[in-house]
Amino acid sequence: MGLRATRATILLFLFFLSSPLPSSTVIAGGSGEDYVRPLPRKTLSLPSKPKRSSDPQQVHISLAGTQHMRITWVSDDEFSRSIVEYGTSPGEYTSSSQGESAFYKYLLYSSGKINHVVIGPLESSTTYFYRCGGQGPEFQFMTPPSEFPVTFSVVGDLGQTGWTKSTLDHISQCKYDVHLLPGDLSYADYQQHLWDSFGALVQPLASSRPWMVTEGNHEKESIVFFKSGFQAYNARWKMPYEECGSTSNLYYSFEVAGVHIIMLGSYSDYDENSDQYAWLKTDLARLDRERTPWLLVLLHVPWYNSNWAHQGEGKSMMAAMEPLLYAAGVDIFIAGHVHAYERMDRVYNGGLDPCGPLHITIGDGGNREGLAHRFNHPKPEWSVYREASFGHGELKIVNSTHAIWSWHRNDDDESVKSDEVWINSLASTGCIHENRPEYRKILMSP
Ligand SMILES: *[C@@H]1O[C@H](CO)[C@@H](O)[C@H](O)[C@H]1NC(C)=O
Ligand SMILES: [Fe+2]
């Protein structure tokens, strides 16, 4: 047996070792005893190749600083150009921008050419028509508004199963401006072709509204003895970290209308001496609550969670960063990771606090691992609504003082609004500590 064959055998063995186990049988339970839950669905078998190899594939867009959008796509043709032509009428491209491209290799896999092109300045609340690489089909997107109201669709732990498909269908029925994804996109782990099929699956949505994502554990390539990191994620889902002064694609912030949104990295260092901590502090110190009265934080691993799944995993990050975020006055804190929905009250330091953020766990996009059915009993006082079902969230920020959050259960292909709550901004309830010296000190200390 040659060296090559031996290596292939070892690789196959490692692939087998690190393959996720199929989830066990699902028993209906959780909080809503009367609701009989459907079984998990299989991973979709998706075509990963388009008709013509030179056509753009896996097109998705993301906000890239004020009035700019980053267009990302993959091309099989290495000579195709990283150019986007665009305009406000179909087929009439009055502007164009040039960008960058890169390939990556992982074990035996070589990616297509991954293109990133930033376009703008763009008008707000405007439909743009665009074409990637100077050829192929026309796409269109709508830019978010510059003022309230603004609507976000929210869901984590998407994966690519039959449930993912129906969750995406429900999201597409909602009238939203920006999609927020708190980690676990493709469930590729190290299996790179799953990034390609995920890109194809989400293209209809992600090419028409900005998708803003942060990393989860399934973004990480993890095979023992091999390079581990976020190689595919960073190459394919480039977020506007440079635009906000972050040095890592794993954490960044951006603004939409009057909302400042911080995407934290659960899988990046977060202690007081870390780059992420230093960046977060700088970002919070720059906040202007007159301009952006709402402050949102998203990350993968929840800090408050009454589900059995992933209990306590967010503890050390919470210990490091919660005081800082509390001092800044975070309105809403959204996590994924736990495959269930849970809405908490306003909390800080482990208990109820009217000036703490309202926490939400929404890792229920429809991934292959199924749902997390078991919750702690009795229910903690800070847990308001919890249910192990797939679904998605919608957050409409109505104005500087009011927002409405709703959760839509994916009830066997029907979207059913199952939880809804009005939220007042901390700016309107006298909780912004900016001018209180003890909190100012936490934010401004070196
Ligand atoms: C914000 O919206 C809420 C709900 O529609 C409304 O009751 C409130 O008066 C509005 N506030 C302002 C300042 O417009
Ligand atoms: Fe996760």
TrEMBL record:
CDD domains: MPP_PAPs (cd00839). Its EC number is 3.1.3.2. GO terms for molecular function: acid phosphatase activity; metal ion binding. Residues 1-24 form the signal peptide. Keywords: Glycoprotein, Hydrolase, Signal. Gene3D superfamilies: 3.60.21.10, Purple acid phosphatase-like, N-terminal (2.60.40.380). Residues 56-143 form the Purple acid phosphatase N-terminal domain. Residues 356-415 form the Purple acid phosphatase C-terminal domain. It holds the Pfam family Pur_ac_phosph_N. Belongs to the metallophosphoesterase superfamily. Purple acid phosphatase family. This is Purple acid phosphatase. It comes from Musa acuminata subsp. malaccensis. The lineage of its organism: Eukaryota, Viridiplantae, Streptophyta, Embryophyta, Tracheophyta.
